[in-house]
Design brief:
Largest sheet: 2 strands, antiparallel
Strand content: under 5%
Number of helices: 23
Structural class: mainly alpha
Number of domains: 2
Helix content: 55-70%
Mean pLDDT: 75
Radius of gyration: 34 Å
Number of strands: 4
CATH topology of the largest domain: Na+/H+ antiporter like fold
Shape: globular
CATH class of the largest domain: Mainly Alpha
Distance between the termini: 68 Å
Length: about 550
């Protein structure tokens, strides 16, 4: 240690001895004092290119502290500094005693590699993060237990910690949590695609279209009835607000389905299939309306846009992906996977599934984004595609023993849904999904909602928008009433057939009331697409006022 300090003093003495010894006027320190304070200052001015790579140049005392205040690091520091001097300093000769730099001798220990600052995170930052995540989980648990709506807890936590109320989280943290939350939303939709039943989706596609159309028309129509005719808002302004509230939150839909019951998997039921399809159609239509609203902003600024292409692009892209994905999966990808890849990837188990899931999900999300449709729709199709790839075994067929080790490996290949549940579901459910709902809370102008007009206008409009989505549930019992009677009751005489058919129809309608109520209440939720539409209308156009935005 003492040897290290002696070498430093010797180097600094030589450096100061090579400079002018005269003092400067006006109370300025002499050249010797300047070089004693900064022994490499003049060297940096003489050779600025040497220090262009932003290498860390620190005093010998700090270098000794960073090395642990021990003589055992003496040799290592010498070697590193010698190499730097030989490689970086033109004409300089490195050594343990120092090198020549611009006519001055500088200790090689003064040049060290850059050291990353690892002390930027303070205790306060850590406590804020810990308390935020603790409030996320606690609020979700309490909301699920008290009002059976666990997704409201993270939204409240986002309001408290975000910009609407206390603004405890810095803006860059909120943006980061917003991105992580959107990843959680995509994973939530992807999980729904993995568990979706294609037969139910295909069998109820017409019912889903009717439900989705009703869920789009009624909010916009009732918005014109109340806002335009009742409150005196503008026509375009009313359309923007109605369009924002016509889209159903796809993420909230899947979250409600996954937490509605511990014994029933609603994704495997008819009402679940209709709900997923209707929410997807609403999502695509919301994206179309967001493009239209953004084009209105361009028109108001004096620009020209191709309105027909803006409207048709998301629709064409969605329909094309809906048609191409099943065809590609059935006739190309599934045969290749089952004959070539499944047997070879079985030895890697979940690891191979994870890699395929990441690749397929990223591919579909990118295709959907660049094609002009919703990335959530792309995530859902990615899950549907992966669920179709592996060969399925008939549960009703008698079990047979595998005849070869390859067949044994193929039989033990886990499904993509099992891999997701084993490796991803916990992170998605307890970290990423709460962050998504907290990011919704970040965007709610909470303090601006408590003016007199905003309160009573908001209450009336909220009730009207709830009714506008509850109407969607009427289609389930209506469909049961309009569907033809079963063939079993058509045998026998006409009177007996009509009575039996009437009883059967009445029983079907009564049985469809509860699923209809569930469908209507699940469609009430608004979320990510609605926020996108209202933000575009407020920031990109001049039609939406502050009162309508609140």
């Amino acid at each position: 240690m003492s040897g290290l300090m002696d070498k430093a003093k010797e180097a600094m003495g030589k450096s100061s001895g090579g400079s002018s010894s005269g003092g400067s006027s006006g109370g300025q320190p002499s050249g010797m004092e300047q070089q004693a304070d900064n022994p490499i200052g003049s060297a940096a001015q003489t050779n600025p290119d040497v220090f262009a790579d932003k290498r860390c140049v620190i005093g010998i005392d700090k270098a000794t502290d960073a090395a642990g205040m021990g003589d055992k690091y003496d040799g290592k520091i010498d070697k590193v500094a010698d190499k730097q001097l030989n490689n970086k300093i033109p004409g300089g000769q490195g050594g343990s005693s120092g090198g020549q730099m611009g006519g001055q001798q500088v200790s090689p220990r003064l040049l060290l590699p850059p050291i990353q600052n690892l002390t930027s995170t303070t205790v306060i930052d850590l406590l804020i993060l810990i308390s935020f995540f603790a409030l996320l989980w606690l609020s979700q648990y309490l909301a699920a237990k008290v009002i059976r709506a666990g997704i409201l807890g993270p939204i409240i936590a986002g309001i408290i910690y975000g910009a609407p109320l206390a603004n405890i989280l810095p803006t860059e943290w909120q943006n980061t949590f917003l991105a992580l939350g959107y990843i959680g939303l995509i994973l939530l939709i992807f999980e729904g695609g993995l568990q979706a039943r294609l037969d139910l989706l295909q069998a109820n596609i017409l019912l889903s279209v009717c439900a989705a159309t009703t869920g789009i028309i009624f909010p916009i129509g009732l918005s014109f009835l109340l806002l335009y005719l009742g409150f005196g808002y503008g026509a375009v302004e009313t359309f923007i607000v109605g369009a924002a509230l016509s889209s159903t939150s796809l993420g909230t839909t899947f979250a409600v389905m996954s937490s509605a019951s511990e014994t029933i998997d609603f994704s495997q039921t008819r009402v679940g299939a209709v709900l997923v399809s209707a929410a997807l159609i609403d999502d695509v239509s919301g994206l179309v309306m967001s493009s239209v609203i953004q084009s209105l902003g361009s028109v108001s600024d004096g620009g020209s846009v191709n309105l027909g292409w803006l409207i048709s692009r998301p629709i064409v892209a969605s329909v094309a992906m809906t048609i191409v994905t099943p065809v590609l999966a059935k006739y190309v990808l599934a045969p290749v996977f089952r004959r070539v890849l499944q047997r070879r990837l079985a030895r890697y188990g979940h690891r191979s599934n994870i890699v395929l899931m990441i690749l397929v999900l990223c591919a579909f999300v990118s295709i959907a984004a660049y094609a002009g449709t919703s990335v959530l729709f792309g995530g859902f199709l990615a899950g549907v595609l992966l669920s179709y790839l592996p060969s399925t075994q008939n549960d009703n067929a008698p079990e047979k023993q595998c005849e070869s080790p390859e067949e044994q490996q193929e039989a033990e290949l886990p499904s993509f849904a099992e891999t997701f549940e084993h490796y991803v579901q916990d992170v998605q459910r307890y970290v990423l999904e709460p962050l998504f709902f907290a990011s919704i809370g970040f965007a709610i102008p909470f303090l601006d909602l408590w003016t007199g007009s905003a309160v009573w206008h908001g209450i009336v409009y909220t009730l009207l928008m709830i009714v506008a989505k509850l109407v969607v549930g009427v289609w389930i019992p209506l469909w049961a009433a309009l569907s033809p009677p079963s063939k079993a009751v058509e045998h026998g005489g006409e009177a007996r057939t009509s009575v039996a058919a009437s009883r059967t129809r009445n029983s079907r309608v009564k049985a469809a009331v509860s699923p209809g109520c569930l469908l209507g209440m699940a469609m009430v939720a608004r979320g990510e697409i609605g926020l996108l539409i209202i933000q575009i209308g407020f920031n990109s156009t001049t039609y939406l006022s502050q009162a309508a935005f609140r």
